[in-house]
Amino acid sequence: MVPVFLGTHTPKLDEKGRFFLPAKFRDDLGEGLVMTRGQDRCLAIYPMATFVAMTQQVASAPTTVKQVRDFQRMLAASASDEVPDKQGRVNIPPALRAYAGLESQIVVVGAINRVEVWNPQTWEDYSTAQEEAFAELNEDIFPIA
């Protein structure tokens, strides 16, 4: 079964840049995960199998297309494979913490096929801006037949 990640959580980063995965995500991410830059200045965390499937799709795209090369580089260069420790803590490498502007407070969001990690203010600004568009997006993505 393909994991589905849901909900919003607010763990804290410790002094070593680690956070506790929400308990409901641990079974699906406990064997290993890949953390990389996400869009909108967040981090994206994928189960290893999901990331491998995604990279196979990305690898099959023609590298003669500049946008493909750019995407492949940005995705892979910032990616970090991690395994949560026995307590369910995951390390966020310094470069990824800097990219997402993460300090002690973070927001962890289930985003269907991935988990996202956000700076709280960035998440607040993003979710507020998207609230009005959400209903319209529903109509665009799932048109009435």
UniProtKB/TrEMBL annotation:
Keywords: Cytoplasm, DNA-binding, Repeat, Transcription, Transcription regulation. Residues 8-50, 79-122 form the SpoVT-AbrB domain. InterPro entries: MraZ, MraZ_C, MraZ_dom, MraZ_N, MraZ_sf, SpoVT-AbrB_dom, SpoVT-AbrB_sf. It is found in: Cytoplasm, Nucleoid. Pfam families: MraZ. It comes from the Bacteria. Gene3D superfamilies: Transcriptional regulator MraZ domain. Its main location: cytoplasm. The keyword Repeat applies. NCBIfam families: division/cell wall cluster transcriptional repressor MraZ. Belongs to the MraZ family. Forms oligomers. This is Transcriptional regulator MraZ. It comes from Brooklawnia cerclae. The gene is mraZ.
